Amino acid sequence: MDQFSDTGRSGLGGERRLFAARLITGLLQGLALYALYFAGEHGLWPRTQPAAFGALALAAGYAPVVVLAGVGRLSGRTLTIWTAVAAVVLALLGWHDVDRRVLESWTQPPFLSLPTLAFAAAALFIAHHLIAPAVRAGRPIAPYADYFDVAWKAGVQLALSLAFTGAFWLLLHLGGALFRVIGIDALERLLSQAWFAIPLLCLAFATAVQLTDVRDGLIRGVRTVALMLLSWLLPVIAVLVASFLLALPFTGLDGLWGTRSATTLVLSAAAALIILINTAYQDGRPDNLPPRALRVGARIASVLAAPLVGLAFWGLMLRIGQHGLTPDRIIALACAAVGAVYAVGYLIAAVRRGPWLRPLERTNVIAAVLSVAVILALFSPLLDPARLSSANQTARLERGAVAAADFDFDFLRFESGKAGRAALDRLARSSEPEVARLAQAAKQRDARAFDTPAELRRRAQGVRIAPVAGQTMPEGFAAQTEALPDVLTFCSGDQPCVLRRLDLDGDGREEALVAAQRMVLAFGQREDGRWRALGRYGPGCVEPRDRLRDALGGDVASAPAALPDLIVGGRRLQAQPEVDCGAG
What we know:
Layout: H1 11-41, H2 50-70, H3 76-99, H4 114-137, H5 144-180, H6 186-191, H7 194-214, H8 216-231, H9 234-251, H10 254-258, H11 262-281, H12 292-323, H13 327-351, H14 359-378, H15 385-398, H16 409-414, H17 417-428, H18 433-444, H19 453-461, E1 465-467, H20 485-490, E2 497-502, E3 511-515, E4 520-525, E5 531-537, H21 547-551, E6 566-568, E7 571-573
Helix pairs in contact: 1-2, 1-7, 2-3, 2-4, 3-4, 4-5, 4-14, 5-7, 5-8, 8-11, 9-11, 9-12, 11-12, 11-13, 12-13, 13-14, 13-15, 15-17, 17-18
């Protein structure tokens, strides 16, 4: 019998109240998400406050799931407090995720990054299934069998509910397509409307949660079959990992390190071991032990997790020692730390005498708590990976661990948010001329350069641009070619590009037109003196190799656009006219 299914579930009336509560929750969630979507889509939300939008979006997307999972299982007061705490924490995570980044003009709401969405969901799932059993047990740590029962059942419910919601949506679109072929497109047009689609999907998910919740025996049966099938994969992964570890002394580690993803590979293998060990162990009751073959396999697998995590740490330390910290390496280091707790605990469980793998239970609870704490630290100012990696990379440059020509200034410019931009500004004011020059060049780039500064400098030295007769190079243009990828790409050939200065928009300031083989590149100068790419001109038809380059020295004038830009809903849409080659 489910000891977590009695609160508010007395008879048919209780089930109806639960269904109504979940439907109301789903509807409110859908309306909240649609309101945010409408505000972002129609420019009603100030672009100056994207962090607040991200905070509300993350809270509105995930906090209602706490209600869907907790109603009928937790008392009203407990559920209200826990939902409020979860909503506040989610909002803070969403706020920080947006606030720490430098958002480009084209970034759209909800502004949240994929890692934040994924890790916040994981932390919420783990935290909820640590709290709910403990509250019901009336003590800080519940019996392990309760944790197992609630978490694995909820995992099956979540998977089935998401599958139901996806299938429901696909069937609606199938119905819309059927009606469209007979000339009725009302359903398809309705499904394309956000005011209808977003609340409907939230209601479908809430309905799926209810349906899977009231069919408790069915969910337990599905869980039992899934665990049984997965547990028999444990001997397979154990043999593969053992063979891999035994082969390493003969093959060496160069091949593993050469993959540049060694940490990800071995941590994934360790995670697979840990999950499959738990499918065999389940709740650990003596009357629920697996066959002897699985018990032996689980004990061996518990030993194998430790060397895998050790290899992950080794690979990470090598990469950090060679290239310093990056956000990805910091997250990998945090995952390896959690993996180390599992590895040590499982190793102790494997070698200790007594009931089969019993120390595994305490290890799982400790690692779950640690996982939540680590996620909250990583996605908050406490251990912000962008801030830590920016500080580490800058310190390596300043102490001479990496030469300025080999330093990745673009990492600070494009991949480490506001902390990286602040570090780059400081390096641009450095007393070291080479550091200041390269930092300034990185600040002027509009897109990341995947070459090292030394390679960019070498390529810039090979750029050949000749002004047309009677003109000179624009001020600062030649010195900024490292920050202009198009120039590096198209003007390093055997023949020089041709440059002409021309006021294209009648604002009294000259733009730079650079003619390559089959296109003309347009560049404009900002108020701070930086040159940036404006666009490209091309006939769109095959032309002789040097026609544009030669013609730029003759008569050149700007002409009205074939199609003007449109203003739609407050947004400017640029035309992309078709080219009629037959019209000359």
